[in-house]
Amino acid sequence: MQTPLLQVKHISKTYMNPKGWFRREHVRAIKSLSFELKRAHTLAVIGEAGSGKSTLAHLLAGEMEPSSGDILLHGQSLNDTNKRQRCMDIRLIPQMPSLSLNPRQRVSTQILAPLVQHRSITHALRQQKLYGTMRDVGLLEEHANYYPNMLSASQRLRVTLARAMIVDPEVLVFDQTLSAMDITMRAQLINLLTKLQQSRGMAYVMIGHQLSMIRHLADHVMVMQHGEVIEFDQTNNVFKAPASDYTKRMVYAYNELTQGSNG
Amino acid sequence: MDRNTIYQDDAVPSITKQVITAFSSRGIFMVAFWTLILMLVVMMLSYVLAPYHPQHQHIDLLLLPPSWYDQGTVEFFFGTDGLGRDILSRVISGTRYTLGGAILTVVISGIIGVAIGAVAAMLRGLRSSILHHLLDTILAIPSLLLAILVIAILGRGWDTVLLAVTIGLIPQFIRVSHQAVLAVLETEYVRMARLDGYTNFQLFYRVVLPNIAEPLIIRFTAALSSAVMDLAALGFLNLGAQAPAPEWGSMMASGIELLTSAPWVITLPGIAIFISVLSINLVGEGLQRSFKKLESS
Question: Where are the transmembrane segments (chain B) (predicted)?
C-alpha cells in the first residue's frame, strides 16, 4: 500500500487571546486531529460554528503553524520543507471569491501571481499555462484582460480556482467556498470540480455545510465538534447511519428538506 | 484556440485610463484642469513671460490703473502698485512663490506623511501606536495654526514658512494613508496575495498601493489647495514671504492701505489666489467622482 497523499497527524492549535493587560486566554481550537487523504479523493469537513473547521483550513493552507503535530505530504513533513513550496502544493480557495480578488489588478496578473513568484519560466510558456488553466476552469481567453468587477460571481470563483491551480497543486482546500452560491451555479461548479479532479488527480478538502454537495463530491466525511473529530466515515455510511447526535440532526434535517421538496 | 471575435471590442482599458476617461467626460473639470496646467506653465516660464522685472520700480508711473480703465495703458496691463511696479509681472512671478511653494510643500509632506502612515499601518503594537497616535494629537490643531506655531519658534521668512506649512500638512497625510493601508490590509485579497507568496515589499507595491491611490490622490489635491491658502494667509499676515517678494498674500497685504484709491493692487492677486484654489478643488472633486464611477461600474 502506497503512502497517502496527505497525512495529518495529531495536530492541535491553541490560540492565545489577550484578555486584559497581562492575562491571556487559551482557546484550544483543534485538539489532536488526524486524518489521511488519498490522491483524487475528497474529504468533507462539517461541524457547527466554532468547531475548528476554519482553523483546520488555515493550518492546511499554511497560513498558521500548528501548535503541535505534523502535516505530511507524500510522507514528508511540511514543517521543515520550504514554506513557499508548501503554499504551492496545498492551495486555499477562499470563502468569498469576489472579495479575494484585487479590484485594481487584471485577471491575468492575479492568476499568474503565484507562478511569477515561484517559478522562473519564459514568458511564452507562462502565457500558454495561463490560457490552458483558464480554459480548464471554463474561462475565455479574453477574460484575461478584464478587471474582477467586470466578471460575474461564478466567473470570479473560476478565477480564484485558476489562480489556485496554475501551480499544479496536489491538494485544494475549499473554505466554505460554495455556500454562498445559488443552486444552478453550484451544480455547474460541482461538475467542473469533478472533471478537474479526474483529469488532474487533485485531492479536495471541502469545508462547509452543503450536505447535498458533500453527498455528490465527498468520499469521506469528517464531523467536528469543539475541536475534535466525533465522526469519520465514508459518505454513504454517514448519510445512512449517522453515529453522533449532531450528525443525526443534520442528516435528518437534510432528508426532511430534500424529500419535502420532492414530494 | 477559437477567440470570440463576434464583437470587435477594444482592449479593456487600464484603471488609469478609465479614470482619465471618466474625468474628461465632464467639461467643468476639464476647464479646471487646463486652467491649472496653464498656471503651471506660467509658473515655469515666469522669467520669460513677465514683461518687466517684478522688483523694477517705474518711478514716474505710480498707481497706474489697469488697461481697461481710461487712464490705463497696454504696456502695464494690470497697472502698477504704489511703488510703480508692474502688477502683471508680479502676479506672474508670484506663481513661483504661492503655487510653486504649495506644490513643493505638498510633495515633501506627502512623501513623509504617506511613508510614516504606511509603516505605522504595517507595523503592529507599540511602534505603530507611537507613530500613529502621537501625530493624531497634532491633527487636532488646524494646519494654519500649527504653521504659525512653527514660525513663532523659528522666526518669520520664506524658508521658515515653507517648513512650517510642510510640518502642518504631514499629520493629515499620516492619518489618511494609515487608515487606507489598514483597510486594505484587512481585505481577503491581501490574505490571498500573502499565500501566493508576495513578500511584504511586493505586497505593498503591487497590492496595497494601487488600492490606496484614490484616497491619496484626493488628499493630495485637498492639501494643495490648503497649502496655497496657508502660504497666502501667512504672507498676508506678514509672517511669510517678506516685503519685496511678489508672493500673492504679501502683495495683498502691501496694498491694503490703498484699498479705496487703487483697488486693483489688492484684487488682482486675490483673483489669482481664488482661481488657483478653485481650479485645484475642482480637479480634486473631478478625480473623486471619476473614482466613484469606477467603483459603481
Answer: 27-50, 99-122, 134-155, 161-185, 216-241, 261-283
The answer to whether the Cβ–Cβ distance between A142 and B1 falls below 8 Å is no
Q: Give the count of domains, chain B.
A: 2
Give domain status of residue B49, yes or no.
Answer: yes
Residue B75 sits in the same domain as residue B186: no
Q: Residue B19 is part of which domain span? A: 15-94+248-297
- Taking 3-state DSSP, the helix, strand and coil percentages for chain A, each rounded to the nearest 5, stand at 45, 25, 30
Per-residue pLDDT tens over the stretch A19-40: 777 777 788 888 888 888 888 8
Task: Decide if A102 and B198 are in contact by the 8 Å CB cutoff.
Answer: no
Cβ pairs bridging A and B (under 8 Å): 69
**Distance between CA atoms of residues A196 and B201, nearest Å:** 34
Task: Judge if B125 and B212 occupy the same domain.
Answer: yes
Kindly list the averaged pLDDT for each block of 10 residues, start to end, along chain B of length 297: 54 85 91 96 92 90 88 88 90 93 96 90 78 75 87 90 92 90 90 85 88 92 94 90 86 88 91 96 93 77
Sheet with A42-47, strands from edge to edge, namely A90-93, A171-175, A203-207, A42-47, A220-225, A228-234
Residue numbers in B near A91 (CB within 8 A): 195
Q: Which residues pair with A229 in a beta bridge?
A: A224
Per-residue pLDDT, B128: 76
Mutate to test the interface with A, among B8, B185, B189, B212 (most CBs of A within 10 A): B189
Q: Is residue B47 domain-shared with residue B153, that is, in the same domain? A: no
* B212 to A100, A113, A145: CA distances (angstroms): 17, 20, 22
Mind listing the pLDDT tens digit for each residue in A51-64?
888 888 888 888 88
Query: What is the predicted pLDDT for the residue at B1?
Result: 44
- The neighbour count for residue B243, using CB atoms within 10 Å, is 10
Domain co-membership, B72 together with B119: no
Give the nearest chain B residue to A145 (CA atoms): B12
pTM value? 0.82
Which chain B residues have any C-beta within 8 angstroms of a chain A C-beta?
Answer: 1, 3-4, 9, 11-12, 15, 187-189, 191-198, 202, 206-207, 210-211, 213, 297
The better pLDDT of the pair B38, A141 is held by B38
A245 and B CB contact within 8 Å: no
- Residue of chain A with shortest Cα separation from B212: A104
Percent of chain A at pLDDT above 90? 2
Claim to verify: residue B133 and residue B227 sit in the same structural domain: yes
Residues of B in contact with A84 (CB under 8 A): 197
Note whether residue B2 is domain-resident.
no
CA of A60 to nearest chain B CA: how many angstroms apart? 12
For strands A203-207 and A42-47, give the pairing. Answer: parallel
Q: Do residues B81 and B255 lie in contact, with contact meaning Cβ atoms separated by under 8 Å?
A: yes
Q: How far is B128 from chain A (nearest CA, A)?
A: 18
